[in-house]
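Human: Can I borrow your eye for a moment on a structure tokenisation matter? Separate attempts, laid side by side, tell us more than any discussion would. Could you pick a protein and write out its sequence and tokenised fold? No explanation is needed for now; the record alone will do.

Assistant:
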Amino acid sequence: MDAGRGVGRVTPTTALTLHFADGEYLFDLKLPQLAELQEKRGAGVFKIYSRVMQGRFLMDGQPIALAAEGEAFAEDLFETIRLGLIGGAKGIVNGQPVAVNALTAKLLVERYSHPAPLRESWATAAAILGARIEGYDPPKKKAPAAKPATKPRKSTSAKSSRTAGSSEPTGGN
């Protein structure tokens, strides 16, 4: 058995669903998207990940982003998001499933990421790259809560108000 691998261990996924733009979208940097990201950005995926993660920390479990320490280029962020959308290929908008292709991804990034503060794209790109490189364990879905037992209803019929073994109605006359 490999060191670090337990029996029954489930490999973390590399795709994740995030709130983005006008809905919830699946982001997945599959191999074709990784190749395009590296080619467009002129760097390997680990170098891009390093640039994007520079200046990002966890403090008391909360993500902190210190822009003064950041190294990422805006295009590192936008291309990661665009290509993650293409790889994920789907989303949910207003409760309805939507398909995402290259044109849709480009328009979403141009409409929602370009005019927004870079901090938002920085967090999104960090999550997408982190899932691809480190893996992502989605939160476990909670089992639906058991319905509370209902109280038996009191019946007004004489038949149901008889005691066991007695043919006489209780109370009354």
User: Anything to note?
Assistant: The helical segments are 31-41, 45-53, 74-88, 102-113, 118-134. Residues 16-134 form one domain. The two ends are 80 Å apart (CA to CA).
